[in-house]
Amino acid sequence: MALKHVVEVERCKGCGLCVIVCAKKVLEISETVSAKGYSPVFQARPDDCVKCTLCCIMCPDVAITIIETDKEEMEVN
Ligand code: SF4
Ligand code: SF4
Q1: pTM attached to this predicted model
Q2: How far is it, in rounded angstroms, from Cα 77 to Cα 75?
Q3: pLDDT digits (tens, 9 = 90+) for 30-66
Q4: What would the DSSP string read from start to end of 8-76?
Q5: Angle at 48 between CA 26 and CA 17, to 5 degrees
Q6: How far apart (Å, rounded) are the C-alpha atoms in residues 29 and 18?
Q7: Distance, CA 29 to ligand 1 centroid (Å)?
């Protein structure tokens, strides 16, 4: 069983708190705009993610989760 880091784009308000808290510099704010008019965060360097969950804890909108998966690859949603 592997762990998968998931960003729910439509919940993200682009506040950048998760970007600041990530010591591995995995996350960046996207230049795209979501349906709600925000620029969501995305995994710019997914291979560097150690799944420490700090970004999940920090996010006030619960837009990031780490889930168990059978697949080994990481996906950005
Ligand atoms: S789980 Fe940890 S290493 Fe991965 S993006 Fe979040 S804060 Fe960074
Ligand atoms: S802390 Fe949450 S709402 Fe803020 S940029 Fe990160 S994922 Fe988006």
Answers
A1: 0.88
A2: 6
A3: 999 999 999 999 999 999 999 999 999 999 999 999 9
A4: -GGG-----HHHHH-TT--EEE-SS--TTS---EEESSGGG-----HHHHH-TT--EEEEEES--S---
A5: 25
A6: 10
A7: 14
For residue 2, give the DSSP letter. Answer: E
- Please tell me the residue having the least CA distance from ligand 1 atom 4: 49
* Residue owning tokens 């780490």: 66
Domain ranges of the chain: 2-69
Q: Which residues pair with 42 in a beta bridge?
A: 28
Show the ligand 1 pocket: residues with CB < 6 angstroms: 5, 21-22, 24, 26-27, 49-55
Are 69 and 2 within 8 A, CB to CB? yes
Q: Pick from 8, 40, 43: which is nearest to 25 by CA?
A: 43
CATH class of the domain comprising 2-69:
alpha beta
